[in-house]
Amino acid sequence: MYFLLAPGTAAEHRWPPGLEAMSRSRRGDAFVGVPALGGGTWPLDWRSRPTAQDPFVDGALLHEMAWLRAGCAVRE
């Protein structure tokens, strides 16, 4: 599952084991599949469609939820 975060946001956090932040800050090119807003893009799909007011997922909230889902206390 992919989450669209504002540029540079993923690198601000230490993610739990098993999660990978893909960004341009790493060596080499990065690719993150982002489904089109319309049409068939299976297997990619939006769980929360971006809007003009909220185009990105809240990186801090995603970070917290990822650690809680991993069964660990939230860490930085």
Explain what you see.
It is a single chain. The protein contains one helix and no strands. It has 76 residues and is low in regular secondary structure. It has a domain at 1-18 and 54-76. The longest helix is centred in the C-terminal third of the chain and has 11 residues, at 59-69. The protein is globular. The model has no long low-confidence stretch (mean pLDDT 76).
N-to-C CA distance: 22 Å
Beta-strand level of the residues, as a percent range?
Answer: under 5%
> pLDDT below 50 for ≥5 consecutive residues: which ranges?
none
Tell me how many strands there are. Answer: 0
What does the main sheet amount to? none
Structural class, please? little secondary structure
Characterize the overall form.
globular
Classify the helix fraction into a percent range. 10-25%
The pLDDT mean sits at 76
SSE pattern = H
The Rg value, from CA coordinates, equals 13 Å
Number of helices: 1
What is the structure about, briefly put?
This protein is largely without helices or strands and 76 residues long. The two termini are 22 Å apart.
Keywords:
single chain; 76 residues; globular
Give the secondary structure arrangement, pairings included.
Elements (H helix, E strand, L loop, with lengths): L58 H11 L7
